[in-house]
Amino acid sequence: MDPTEKDLQLQLSQPKRRAAAFSSLVRSYQERLYWHIRKMVLSHDDANDVLQNTFMKAWNGLDGFRGDSQVSTWLYRIATNETLTFLANKRLRNLQSIDGDEDVTLQNLQADTYINGTELQLKLQKAILTLPDKQRLVFNMKYFDDITYEQMENILGTSVGALKASYHHAVKKIEKIFSEED
Amino acid sequence: METKKNISLEEIGKELPFSVPENYFEQFANQIDKQIGYNSTRSHKIFRPWMYAAAAVFVGVMVLTPVFYTNNTQHNGTKNTDNYETYVLSQVDETALLDCYVDNNNSKK
Question: Which of A114, A133, A146, B80 qualifies as a cystine partner to A44, CB 3.0-4.6 A?
Answer without folding.
Answer: A114
